[in-house]
């Protein structure tokens, strides 16, 4: 296995992945184990979030798993001890759920973040913390591609809370010298994502419907643009950020992720139909729950992370979809079973 310099950084190092039983966190935890890191995962398995014990099946015996909320301070303290890098992916991701149950979103995306930062500054102020931010923090783009200087005007509770979560990280960098970095993720897809309900974004729905051969519903005219990232590329971005010392990236920095491949929702749906070899596309009006919070077309300018950390996505969307469907065909029982 030929490793990139950031990948070589992790052998023998202690790392913590919060939200590590979820979609992106478990892919990251698995890769870190492969790279020889000593991995601790802390995940509260919040109902309706993507935490799934099966996500960690292949590394179960090689990680330490704490089933605990970040707000359970004793556990968080123990998990942080001696850790060099914290990959902070714990969070509630559903925009719809954040509107229906805003205080639960607040608990995951703000209170928990503050709890982690407080414990970290007391017990392990030298740890790097890489936070999973989101494009939702920008709200409706005023221009595209959206760079890191774009105004931050979220359109839903989730976006506001994720923004606050990021700002706590930046504030703790500024005031307490913590080495925090935020990656503002765009829509991510791939193996181990929750697909059993419709409230974790359109890609999960596209996956489930493709597997079932059901029509893929696209809201509105389907011309809204997106820049998807396959999860392996997102994992690579976290690894690159976690390996970058303060001499390369000062604490409090933010980076957009993004993709050279900008596609309309309709084009993405067509790729799913083609990869599944069946199904069709249906254009349907926006559901009421989404009308007010939809952000229209979005794609990011990710030249900053390319310049500073040398990151860019490598997986074509079509290839990512093919790999995603292959994974779920093999493991579907663990992702579609009733809760
Ligand atoms: N998936 C995407 O497209 C996307 C896009 C932008 C940003 N993000 C961010 O990336 C991160 C991971 O997203 P994901 O798609 O893997 O979500 P996920 O739902 O699959 O995983 C999140 C995990 O965090 C855990 N969690 C939530 N609150 C917790 C708490 N207080 N303490 C401990 N564990 C807690 C959940 O149980 C779950 O396992 C999130 O912070 C999300 O906001 C994801």
Beta strand count: 13
Q: Calculate the mean pLDDT score and round it.
A: 96
Q: Over the alpha carbons, how many angstroms does the gyration radius reach?
A: 19 Å
Please state roughly what percent of the residues sit in beta strands, choosing from under 5%, 5-15%, 15-25%, 25-35%, 35-45% or over 45%. Answer: 15-25%
**Helix residue percentage:** 40-55%
Structural class: alpha/beta
Query: Count of helices?
Result: 13
- H/E element string? HEHEEHEHHEHEEHEEEHEEHEHHHH
The shape, in one word, is globular
**Biggest sheet, spatial arrangement of strands:** 3-2-1-4-5-6-11
What compounds sit in this structure?
nicotinamide-adenine-dinucleotide
What profile does the largest beta sheet have? 7 strands, parallel
Q: Distance between termini?
A: 38 Å
Which runs of at least 5 residues are low in confidence (pLDDT < 50)? none
Describe what you observe in this structure.
This protein has 339 residues and is of the alpha/beta class. It has helices at residues 5-8, 23-34, 73-80, 95-100, 102-123, 157-176, 202-212, 231-243, 265-276, 288-291, 303-309, 317-331, 333-336; strands spanning 14-18, 38-42, 63-66, 85-88, 128-134, 179-185, 188-189, 216-219, 225-226, 229-230, 253-256, 263-264, 281-284. It is globular. It binds nicotinamide-adenine-dinucleotide. Nicotinamide-adenine-dinucleotide (NAD) binds next to helix 2, helix 5 and strand 5.
């Amino acid at each position: 296995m030929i490793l990139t310099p950031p990948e070589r950084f992790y052998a023998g190092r202690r790392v913590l992945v919060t939200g590590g039983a979820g979609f992106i966190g478990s892919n990251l935890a698995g890769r870190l184990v492969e790279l020889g890191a000593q991995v601790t995962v802390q995940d509260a398995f919040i109902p309706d979030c993507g935490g799934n014990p099966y996500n960690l099946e292949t590394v179960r015996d090689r990680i330490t798993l704490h089933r605990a909320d970040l707000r359970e301070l004793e556990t968080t303290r123990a998990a942080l001890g001696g850790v060099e890098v914290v990959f902070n992916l714990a969070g509630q991701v559903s925009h719809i759920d954040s509107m229906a149950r805003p205080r639960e979103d607040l608990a995951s995306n703000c209170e928990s973040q503050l709890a982690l930062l407080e414990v970290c500054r007391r017990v392990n102020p030298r740890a790097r913390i890489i936070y999973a931010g989101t494009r939702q923090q920008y709200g409706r783009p005023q221009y595209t591609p959206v760079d890191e200087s774009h105004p931050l005007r979220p359109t839903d509770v989730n976006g506001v809370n994720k923004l606050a979560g990021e700002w706590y990280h930046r504030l703790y960098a500024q005031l307490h010298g913590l080495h925090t970095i935020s990656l503002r993720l765009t829509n991510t897809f791939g193996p181990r994502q929750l697909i059993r309900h419709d409230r974790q974004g359109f890609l999960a729905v596209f996956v489930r419907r493709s597997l079932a051969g059901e029509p893929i519903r696209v809201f509105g005219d389907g011309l809204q643009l997106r820049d998807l990232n396959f999860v392996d590329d997102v994992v690579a971005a976290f690894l690159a950020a976690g390996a970058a010392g303060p001499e390369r990236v000062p604490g409090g920095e933010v980076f957009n992720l993004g993709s050279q491949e900008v596609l309309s929702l309709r084009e993405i749906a067509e790729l799913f139909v083609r990869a599944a070899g069946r199904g069709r596309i249906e254009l349907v009006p926006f559901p009421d729950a989404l009308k007010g919070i939809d952000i229209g077309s979005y794609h990011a300018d990710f030249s900053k992370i390319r310049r500073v950390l040398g990151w860019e996505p490598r997986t074509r969307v079509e290839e990512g979809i093919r790999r995603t469907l292959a994974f779920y065909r093999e493991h579907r029982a663990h992702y579609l079973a009733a809760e």
